[in-house]
């Protein structure tokens, strides 16, 4: 029983579609992220994830300014005022965790809302 060319073509198209869907990433499944990544064209602070995001603009409103006791977020400046470079670094890290469909590649084994052992590029650390 041989496989005909049209059948083989349909199998290839199906596999390509499945692979394409899987390559778009997956959101962390912790109730704080969207269930699946999708475009969010109006992300202000995390614009690099606008094409395929696990967050909404509402989810990241607090990233627009440095968290503090007055806005009920964990303050970033516990040790004194932050430089603009340091604040930018912290925002990029927060955007990755909240919006990146790639963050789920490094799940914590016991805490669904955590990630661990995320590899960093040397340039990311150097530039900070």
From TrEMBL:
<keyword id="KW-0732">Signal</keyword>
<dbReference type="Pfam" id="PF03024">
    <property type="entry name" value="Folate_rec"/>
</dbReference>
<protein>
    <recommendedName>
        <fullName>Folate receptor-like domain-containing protein</fullName>
    </recommendedName>
</protein>
<keyword id="KW-1015">Disulfide bond</keyword>
<dbReference type="InterPro" id="IPR018143">
    <property type="entry name" value="Folate_rcpt-like"/>
</dbReference>
<feature type="signal peptide">
    <location>
        <begin position="1"/>
        <end position="23"/>
    </location>
</feature>
<dbReference type="InterPro" id="IPR004269">
    <property type="entry name" value="Folate_rcpt"/>
</dbReference>
<feature type="domain" description="Folate receptor-like">
    <location>
        <begin position="26"/>
        <end position="128"/>
    </location>
</feature>
<comment type="similarity">
    <text>Belongs to the folate receptor family.</text>
</comment>
């Amino acid at each position: 029983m041989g496989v005909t060319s049209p059948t083989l073509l349909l199998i290839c198209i199906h596999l390509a579609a499945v692979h394409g869907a899987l390559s778009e990433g997956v959101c962390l499944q912790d109730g704080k992220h969207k269930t699946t990544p999708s475009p969010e064209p109006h992300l202000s602070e995390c614009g690099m994830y606008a094409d395929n995001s696990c967050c909404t603009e509402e989810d990241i409103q607090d990233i627009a300014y440095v968290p503090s006791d007055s806005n009920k977020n964990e303050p970033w400046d516990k040790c004194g005022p932050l430089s603009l470079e340091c604040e930018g670094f912290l925002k990029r890290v927060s955007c990755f965790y909240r919006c990146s469909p790639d963050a789920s590649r490094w799940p914590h084994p016991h805490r669904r809302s955590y990630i661990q052992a995320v590899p960093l590029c040397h340039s990311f650390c150097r530039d900070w």
